[in-house]
Amino acid sequence: MKNIRNFCIIAHIDHGKSTLADRFIQHCNLVTDRNFKDQILDTMDIERERGITIKSQTVCLPYKAKDGREYILNMVDTPGHVDFSYEVSRALASCEGALLLIDASQGVEAQTLANLYLAMEHDLEIIPVINKIDLPAADPDTIALQIEDDLGLDSEHTQFCSAKKGTNVDAVLESVVKFLPAPEGDPDRPLEALIFDANYDPFRGTIISCRIVHGKIRPGDIIQFMSTGATYKVEEIGLFQITRNPQKELSAGHVGYIIAGIKTVSDTRTGDTITLKDRPCAKPLPGFKEPQPVVFSSLYPISTDDYEALSAAMEKLKLNDAALTFQKDSSTALGFGFRCGFLGLLHLEVVQERLEREFDISLILTVPSVNYHFYLQDGAMVEVDNPAYYPDPSKIERTEEPFIKATILMPEEYMGVVMTLCMERRGENTNYHYPMPGRIEFTCELPLAEVIYDFYDRLKSITQGYGSFDYELLDYRPSDLAKLDILVNHEKVDALSQLAHRSKARERGLHACERLKDEIPRQMFKIAIQAAIGGTIIARTNISALRKDVTAKCYGGDISRKRKLLEKQKAGKKRMKTVGNVDIPQSAFLAVLKSDAS
To answer: 331 Cβ partners below 8 Å, 6+ apart?
Structure first.
């Protein structure tokens, strides 16, 4: 165990975590040059297309140190986006140390601090690593001082490297061996293994990623899950070395995988403890904090026949994405579906894309919303995240909505436009300071509902991609909320209803009406598209009717003949309007979700 090191790489977005992981893998000769590709640990198509890490990935590196000793380095490459911080917290639980990666030109940013605090909560040993020292704008000495002043980390252990060019990668690996502690655990105690991830293989069942805290495990052992009491016989155990590498035994301190023919997906829970059936441990390990979903949206299959397939897909995705929460939901317009909770809008997009790609299911999403508190006149408090459960307005005494503290880091020339954006979104208590020359850290308290709509996209476009955004939930504050209904041909479409601040309701209503007008095909009668709060119409557009030229055959003669035909047509259209149904195409639901800028 003295020769095992478990560590992860944490950093802000785009500071080079996956590139450094690539260099470590090449340095330890885990992959031949012929089989190597950039971002080798990012296995999902969506990760490679977007150039981001979504899933934490573990790899076991065999390393020979300069003193000649052989080490096993279990490395976890983690995501940088705030939406996937739950992935980072789970990865940290399986480690004793962390490399905190900082860009030599950008310096300490929002997620750098957030991930540092997460690591400190887990009592990890931290080595600061300044990356990208080969860039023309790099200033590693200033960044090293910033690490000491802003983060309070000891600069003696600070390493300088360029992951892209492979400069000083061996020195970083040496520092891992030298400064990070070996895992503690007793191989002779009863087995205690913590599940920190899992994924589903159609041929082998559930493949569990776990950290062995105490004891040993071998193929043929009968294991038991502490939370459900389910027992299984171990078929294969091993280490992650890009591909799965089977072993004869895993003992305390190892990070590896277990395959035990687990077909029931619901038995496997992230944070559960695995022990041996004939020699169980006394109590389960402390698991992970339950993730708090922030954004809520309903998912419906485009074809109602796909509901069963969607249900199975959600179970399998939950296994691999523990931050996803869902429950059954139904809508008169869209049939049966699921009400899901996400950690942010990027998380929502990723889940939607994974369901469509990995499980081949076409989906419709409803307008994202947050969790509101409604205080009723009888003293009760109701939590509402779905407009369908909006209480009777006459019984509501007051309403509250969640507020966040947004931290935005950007070059100082964008200060004005960012401040204007925050004020438009009902921002308050703004504050700013200069962490380093030329860069501003701007903090502002914003309603979460204003952020989930299209705030991040707008921020990126007005700062030309240089603005970085991080947030934490603060509290609930009084708000003036209203339920905005969308009516097509005087009938409510429940899937398009949304909860909005009264001051923004007309703007939202107009946007939805205009989008629907572009998407709904014209009929033989005029269609009214309206946005309403209760019985009050606040926005309206019309789709004009298709007209047949009924007077074409009237040439010459009395004008009354033409008028008679037009009146007949008018009466027919009026009758059609009362009985006609308007089918709303699926693209219309998606169009309402998109902002004006997109």
So the answer is: 298, 300, 337, 366, 388, 494, 495
**Angle, CA 386 vertex, CA 385 and CA 390 arms, to 5°:** 100
Q: Please state whether the predicted TM-score (pTM) of the whole model is above 0.90.
A: no
For residues 332 and 268, give the distance between their C-alpha atoms in angstroms, rounded to a whole number.
34
Q: How confident is the model at residue 171 (pLDDT cuts 50, 70, 90)?
A: confident
- Percentage of the chain lying above the pLDDT 90 cut: 0
Encode pLDDT of 345-397 as tens digits: 778 878 888 888 888 888 887 777 788 888 888 888 888 877 878 888 888 88
Question: Domain 4-179: which topology?
Answer: Rossmann fold (3.40.50)
274-312 per-residue burial string, b: 16 or more CB within 10 A, e: under 16: bbbeeebbeebbebbeebebbbbbbbbbeeeebbeebee
Helices 17-27 and 169-179: angle between axes, nearest 10 degrees: 90
Whether residue 76 contacts residue 99, with contact meaning beta carbons closer than 8 Å, is answered with: no
**pLDDT tens-digit readout, 227-238:** 778 888 888 888
Read out DSSP for 389-437? GPPPGGGEEEEEEEEEEEEEEEEGGGHHHHHHHHHHTT-EEEEEEEEET
Residue type, 175: S
Q: What digits encode the pLDDT tens for the residues 579-590?
A: 556 667 666 766
598: pLDDT strictly greater than 60: no
Q: Do domains 4-179 and 483-499+508-593 have the same CATH topology?
A: no
Q: Does domain 372-479 have CATH number 3.20.20.390?
A: no
The alpha helices in 230-306, defined as continuous H runs, are: none
CATH topology of domain 192-276: Elongation Factor Tu (Ef-tu); domain 3 (2.40.30)
- The pLDDT of 468-480, averaged and rounded, is 82
Name the architecture of domain 483-499+508-593.
2-Layer Sandwich (3.30)
Q: Which of 296, 20, 317, 338 is nearest to 198 (CA)?
A: 317
Reported as a single tens digit per residue, the pLDDT across 568-580 is: 877 776 666 555 5
Answer yes or no: are the C-beta atoms of 27 and 71 closer than 8 Å.
no
Distance CA 167, CA 343 (A): 36
What superfamily would CATH give domain 295-365? Elongation Factor G (Translational Gtpase), domain 3 (3.30.70.870)
Contact 372, 307 (CB under 8 A): no
Mean local confidence (pLDDT), 76-100 = 75
Domain ranges of the chain: 4-179, 192-276, 295-365, 372-479, 483-499+508-593
The SS3 assignment for 484 reads strand
Distance CA 477, CA 447 (A): 9
Report which of residues 259 and 55 the model is more confident about.
259
> Rounded mean pLDDT of 490-516?
84
Give the pLDDT confidence of 247-293 residue by residue, as tens digits: 888 888 888 888 888 877 677 777 788 888 888 887 877 766 677 77
**Continuous H helices in 267-397:** 307-320, 345-358
DSSP letters along 143-189, please?
Answer: HHHHIIIII---GGG-EE-BTTTTBTHHHHHHHHHHHSPPP---TTS
User: 385 phi and psi, to 5 degrees?
Assistant: -115, 0
- Alpha carbons 343 and 324: distance in angstroms, whole number: 8
